[in-house]
Write a structure and sequence with these properties.
With about 220 residues, the chain is mostly helical. It has 9 helices and 4 strands.
Length: about 220
Amino acid sequence: MTVSNVANSAGFSAYAQTMMNRRGISAEQREQFADIHEQFESQSTSINAKDYIASLSDGDLEILRKVHSLADKIRPDELSLEGALNLLNQPGDVQDLNDDAIVEVGKAKTFVFPPPNAPQNVKDAWEETTANMSDKEKMLLTFKFMTQIMTANLHKQGDTYVFTQPGEEGYVNPYSAGTSYKGVVNDMLYDLERMKKYMPAEKYESDKQLLTAFADALEKNGAC
């Protein structure tokens, strides 16, 4: 398993550079991170990401922790293969190996939209829709899609509701292969109309505008 989009001192994505700037990662630390990646790539046919991280020094592990802004010290024996692999990726370049729509970076778990396994035309539509949004606006829109995971995995059990966690039997990924993203957005628009009378008019209009813009971008980019 190799790391996609090779990271080196001159090849970080714009997003990765922005995040590393925010995290105070120095030029020297970026070069060290790139070296860690390059060494892994040179061995990747004979060693997997988890075993490779287990071979790193405490100093190298600290660089990975800082680059990905993790709160806790990295403990290689506690990592999944996905969590280990994404530590070796530059920020923003993540993989979802088990296709559960939840991305592991080290032990941290987060939701990314569109999911890493989404078709490229869906990702292109998202970039068009969010191009002029602030980070806060994009985060709020992303949260709307995260709630679809909650909805798909919330079940009534007697008098209470239980949430099926990723990895548990019965967990549903609403963004698995073959998902109709246009269908997801249309369902969200339908639910929005249903809840209109319970919402402030400004929020209703804002949500409708955002979802409609994404639906139009999906259509434009030929996404299903």
